[in-house]
Specification:
- The protein is mainly β.
- The longest helix has 7 residues, at 13-19.
- The protein contains 1 helix and 7 strands.
- It starts with 6 loop residues before the first strand and ends with a strand.
- The chain has one helix at 13-19, and strands at 7-8, 22-27, 32-34, 39-43, 49-53, 62-64, 71-75.
- It has one domain: Microbial ribonuclease fold.
- The protein is globular, with a radius of gyration of 12 Å.
- The strands form 2 sheets. A 4-stranded mixed beta sheet has the order 1-6-7-2, with no helix packed on it.
- 21% of the residues are buried.
- The chain binds zinc ion.
Length: 78
Amino acid sequence: MCQNCVLFYDFTEDDLRNMGPVDAQVYLEEMSWNEDDHSFSLSCRCGGKYSVSKDEIEEVTLISCDTCSLIIELLHYS
Ligand SMILES: [Zn+2]
């Protein structure tokens, strides 16, 4: 797990309510691939970054910003 991000697994609806609103729903294609650390990232409106590693991308659905409390939901094609 990378040091700059917190990843959330297996959240229930109650957990989501406690965490606050999801800021955006994005598809993987909308995120930027970083060759350096083999991760996908997306800029947050606060100037921070959502980041998730290639290894975790399959299991992660919620990604938190590294500098604020906003969360995005990663959508997977079914
Ligand atoms: Zn942010």
